Amino acid sequence: MAIIGEFNTDSGALEKRINSHEKFGSTDINDWIFKNLEISPALSIVDLGCGTGKQTIPMSKLVGKNGKILSVDISQESLNTLLMKAGQTKTQNIITPLCCGLDDIHNHLNENSFDRILSSFSLYYSQNPRNVIKTIYNSLKNGGIFFFCGPSKDNNEELKSFHNKIKGTNNSQLSGGALFMEKTGQQLAKEIFGSIDILHFENRLRFDSNEALYNYWSSYNLYDREIENDFFSEAKKHFEQNAIFETTKRVLGIKVKKQ
């Protein structure tokens, strides 16, 4: 499975990525996620790997006062940020935080208890995803939906090419997350749930300065300290000749239903 890297549990880096997607992107991933989760009022939902609340906070508004959301993350710092946001939006009574790793959720989720379970950019950090998906299956009510998503094989291909050129490499291997989403995750979901729907999402990011591009690159695991100065220099050269640097966030989603 993917290795948890420097920025995967860093709430500050996570907020930077989210802000970049919102400021320089063209499409909101939450609209796509919530459509596929089929969210409605009064549902009970688990948000696995909830981070600082990118999905939890808006979902709490959609399920309303009669709904409930169990927000699970391995980072207490991220959960603290989420709870601050919940207080600001007056949704704290709907949200229950749980500081827990994915591989320990079997100790916390009761069988046949939840209507929906979401894992956005997190499931592939499990050391034993088969057991995690089995726990998810058992925890869903009949008719319940599990939706998980993560990077596709060509996610941010433009930025990766820019990075590799600076580094002097030609790394075409799939990352742990993309490999999981394209192969292992699909196989396990089909094995445990019986059938799957494969869905796709794209968000085109158009950065307008070398600082904006650098901030995005330096906030997730493509970042490489050894080429930090070179990256900033090459980004500056790019914007001396171009108004925009464009890369596309390409996401793969898997939707399954407990029959």
Characterise this structure:
With 259 residues, this protein is an alpha/beta fold. The chain has a single domain, classed as Rossmann fold (3-Layer(aba) Sandwich), CATH 3.40.50.150. The protein contains nine helices and seven strands, in the order ααβαβαββαβααβααβ. It has helices spanning 11-24, 29-37, 56-63, 76-89, 129-139, 157-167, 176-193, 210-217, 228-241, and strands at 44-48, 68-73, 95-99, 114-120, 140-151, 197-207, 245-257. The longest helix is centred in the C-terminal third of the chain and has 18 residues, at 176-193. Residues 1-7 have low confidence and may be disordered.
Which properties best describe this structure?
259 residues; alpha/beta; Rossmann fold; 7-stranded mixed beta sheet; 9 helices; 41% helix; disordered N terminus
- Helix fraction, binned, reads 40-55%
The topology string of helices and strands comes to HHEHEHEEHEHHEHHE
What is the number of E strands?
A: 7
Give the biggest beta sheet: 7 strands, mixed
Which descriptor suits the 3D outline? globular
Distance between the termini: 28 Å
- Overall SS class: alpha/beta
Overall tally of structural domains: 1
| Distinct helical segment count | 9
Report the average pLDDT across residues: 92
Radius of gyration (CA) equals: 19 Å
CATH class: Alpha Beta
Q: List the strand order in the largest sheet.
A: 3-2-1-4-5-7-6
Spans of at least 5 consecutive residues with low confidence: 1-7
Full CATH superfamily name: Vaccinia Virus protein VP39
CATH level-3 fold name: Rossmann fold
Going by CATH, the architecture would be: 3-Layer(aba) Sandwich
Strand content: 15-25%
